Structures are given as structure tokens and as C-alpha cells.
Amino acid sequence: MRRSPRAVRILRAALAVLCAALPAIGCAAIPEYSPPQAVKGADESRRASPVAEPERDADPLTLVRNFILASSSPDGDHAAARLYLTKQAQDQWNTKASPSVIADSFDTLYSPSVTPSGSASRTTVVLRATKVGRLGPDSAFTPEVGTEEVPMQVERQPDGQWRISEPPDGVRVTLSGFTENYHQARLYFFDPDRQVLVPDPRYVVAQPPSGMPARVMDLLLAGPSQALGGAVRSAIPPTVSTRTNPVETPDGALEVNLDQLGDQTVQNKRLIVAQIVRSLQGVTNSRVRIESGGMPLFPDHPDWLPGDIPSYDAQTMPGADLQGLVVAGGRVRSLKDGSPVPGPAGSGEYQVVSGAQSADGSELAVVVRRPAGGMALRVGRYGETPREVDLPASQLTRPTWAPGGSTTDASNELWTVADGNVVRVVKTAEGVWVPQAVNAAELTQLGPITDLRLSRDGVRVAAVAGGRLVVSSVVRNQDSSVTLQAPRALQWGSLAGVVDVDWQSQDSLVVATSSPTTPVARLPVDGLQVDRYSSANLTAPVTAVAAAPGRPVMVVDASGAWTANDIGEVWRSMPINFGAGSLPFYPG
């Protein structure tokens, strides 16, 4: 029970009299009640130290270089970087715009129109940098590609030191500086059916650590990122705010006090709890105490840990008993022992080009060559004769399944690209698979689509378009039409010749490329960084890749199929060599 401040003062006065009367006993100081406050992180004390002064007698080129390096720290509104500016420029520098991220390697050079001399009092220095991306107003990273040249005026001050008098508009941050000073937080929203929690990566200032929960909650209440707008849903009403910043309570819980929540069903309150707890788990290890108007959202369960949240991603995982399949020699075979699957897909009756198994394993889709030319899509129960879909085409990409309605429901939707047009194939109530066009105009502008994979939550697609890796969001409209929005080319400045892609998790991808130096790579869904798998043991070109949560990555090169569990591992040949040109795939 919380006592009033007046009651606490009376109690302290009484105890003080008692302590005076009984000096031999001794009394500890009795603190007054104070509201919960943020607990300082172990490394926050260093932030109180003054920022370092610029190097004395630095030449203009070095000054601008060090200014860019100092700009990576957002502390005190970029206080460290402001020391490189003249007094007037410090007041004029615009730091409110979202920071631009540039490559670690950049150049500073004198403008060609300027001839620096030892007696000059003013010069122009040009920053030449490779763009990596930009942190948007929603704190989501958006990749950008290209180079930029940014001029800066530099003036000699009365004390002989150079300072920047005309800084660039906005802040440039090196990639290393960005990852050091910003923390990736996965915010979570629901798919349109409110069955799966979908990660939405954002980046918040890392210091002080105690403030990160408040920054995450502000972003969560503001809704999904611009790229996912329309593709996901939030169970938290848009009117909701927090009455106070999330703070650590004296008993070690992180208190989140919601305001203007209104009446909610028990089911919706559970969804709200799931979004909050999962979104905060990356920035706190504390129990999360969720309240509404100062009262527990669930009186019988005031505090929550991630383990208390039901699994909202089980249907994105392939079943443990499903080992995966492979198309080899025109047949679909088991990855486990190489045996053909039952039915015409494995018997050789069809000339199978590619295939996909639903996440629950009950359905199989195959692309087959027509005897008269062209390709056909066939879909049916695993082991049975699949029906041909009315989708004639010269070329069809390998199919990709949407998740089912639950972990026990078979999917009723799969996607492919027919002669350059994105198509989703939907199962009707009568059991007929019917093709429906997808509005992919923004995506197709980036080049011919040679591969397309739905994410395991069905909210995004990854595509190979014009040899580049592109991610788009899937927006399901009220009229049942579907649109691919906000296509974003990931790392296309460093990932050349992408030939195949698969989802390793809901927000990470593995790609195969035609590059002998980077045959296989992994990257997050926003493309901030790329991690390269070892090229040891692989023989270029790599032509296929398969990935899934909790499964080794499989690739196929000129000699056959290989597996690796993680970055840096040497590739191991599979026990059964299905040969070059084979196409392995996990369910989903």
C-alpha cells in the first residue's frame, strides 16, 4: 500500500524522536516515498563526461572527417559534432531530420574550385561518400544506393583553428557509428487475421539504456512502419497513450501504464499484452507490468514475461517431422533418403521443374513442363494426383505458399510469377484452385521477376527482380484484391547477380548469387547489413538456396548440394548428392 506524503512525514518525525531517545539502538535513514524512476544502466555514467574537443591544428580535410565520425553520437543533440562548427553554425545546423547512413569508407577533399594555401582563411571541403540508407521518421531503416558529394565551408577562427561554418543539412552517420549508437528493436504487429505476430524492425537511440523502453513504446503506439502500413494490424487502439514513461518499479518490474484504452474484450487485451511484451523483450529483461488507468490490465496476472505469451508464430515453422523435398531429374524426392514422393510428382509421369510443399506438409504444388511446350502449375494433396491450374504460361517461377489459418489448417493460397505477372492461386469452397492477379506494378518496374517467395507470415514477399533482391509488403484490400507496396532493393550495390532467395525467418533472408566472391549471403529484411557465408568448398555458380527456421541452409552449386548451419561454417556435402541443377525446398 502506498502511503500519502503527509503520513510518511508524520511517521518519519515519530521515528526520529524514537531514534533520539534510543541512541544505542541506532536507526537507518527512512526515505520518503517517491514514485518509480528509471534505473540507470551500468554504462550510463560515462555519458556524463564532457565531450572531447576537436584535435588542435587539424587541417580542413581532417576536421571534416572527424566531424563526420563525431556525428555518429546523437548524445546532447550531437554535442560532440557541434564542437567542429563555428558558434553561428552550431545554432543553424539542422539535426532534426532523420540521419543518413553512409559507408565507413569515405573521402574528404578540397573543392576543385579552391586552391588551399597556408594563409587562406576560408576553403571548401567536399565529403564524398557512398550512401547506405536513411533512418525514416518512423525510425525504420530504408536502403539507398549511390554516391553523394556534400560541400562544406570551413573557416579559420581567430585562434587559428579551423571550424565548419556551413555544415550540411541533416546528419551523416557512418554505418559502424550507426550500429554502435542505435539499437535495433523489433516491434510486433499482427497479420490481417490476427494469428501471427509480425516483426517490424526499428532503430532507437541506445543511450541511455533506461530510456529505450519508452522509445519503443512510443513507436509501438504510433503504429507500423511506413513500409508495413496496410499490411499489418495493431490490437492497440490509435487513441492509446502512456500515462507515464515506462519505468522500473522498486520491486524490479517495468511498469507500462496505458491511458485511454477504453473497454476491450479479453481476447483483444491478450493481443495487446502480446504486442507490448514481445516488443519490449529486446530492450528489457524485467517483468512487464501492464496497467490501464493505473489498474492491472489483468488483475490476476499483472506482470508478464515473454514465456507467458502464447506462441503466435508456430504456423511459420515447418513441422519437425517434415525433412524437406528436392526436385531432381524431373521428379520430387525426399531430402531424407532420396526416395521419390508418392504419386505422379515422384513417379516420373510429370517433368517437374520446381515445387513447393505447404507448411503443414499436406499440400504439394509443382511446376511441370507441358509436352507441347510451356509450363503448367499443378496443386493437390501430398501423394495424390495434383490438378492442373488454369494458368498457361511460357515461364512459371517456383511456387510459394501462404501460411494456413492455424497450425493445423492447410493453406488455401500459393503464389507464382507467370510470364512476368505476379499471380496468387486461391482454393475455392469447391476445392478448385483459381488464379487471381496481384497488383505488382511497383515491383515489376525494377526488372523481370525470376524468383518470388512469400514470407512465412504472409506479410512480405522477397523477389529477385532484374538480378536484385527486392522486398515488398503484401497489402490485402477490403475488396479482396492484393497489392505489393513499397518495394525496396536491398544491398544491390554489393549483392550483384542474385539468382535465388529464401526466408530463413520472418525477418531474415538468405540469397544465392552468381558472384564467386559472395555466392551465399544472409541479410535482414531491411537490408541494413549483409553477412557473407564462406565460399570454401563451393564451386561457382550457386544456383539455388533453401532456408527455414531451425534448419540448415542448403545450396546447390556446380557439383551438387551443400549445407551449413551458420555464417562462417564450411559447407558440408549432403549425404545424397542430387547433382547440379537440383532444387531443394523446405515446407512453406
Q: Strand-residue fraction?
A: 25-35%
Number of E-state strands:
38
Per CATH, the superfamily of the largest domain is TolB, C-terminal domain
CATH architecture of the largest domain: 6 Propeller
Cα gyration radius (Å): 29 Å
State the name of the first-level CATH class of the largest domain: Mainly Beta
**If you average the pLDDT, what whole number results?**
89
Distance between the termini: 52 Å
| Number of distinct helices | 9
Q: Considering DSSP H and I runs of 4 or more, what fraction of the residues is helical? A: 10-25%
Main sheet record: 7 strands, mixed
Shape: globular
> Ranges with pLDDT <50 over ≥5 residues?
1-48
CATH topology tier name of the largest domain: Neuraminidase
Overall domain count: 4
Structural class: alpha+beta
Description:
The structure is a single chain. The protein folds into 4 domains: 5-34, no CATH class; 52-170, Nuclear Transport Factor 2, Chain: A (Roll), CATH 3.10.450; 183-312, no CATH class; 315-585, TolB, C-terminal domain (Neuraminidase), CATH 2.120.10. Strands 1, 2, 3, 4, 5, 6 and 7 form a 7-stranded mixed β-sheet that branches. Helix 2 packs antiparallel against helix 3 (75-82) and helix 6 (212-222) crosses helix 7. The protein is globular and about 85 Å long. It is of the alpha+beta class and 588 residues long. 14% of the residues lie in helices and 34% in strands. The model is unreliable at 1-48 (pLDDT under 50). The chain has 9 helices and 38 strands.
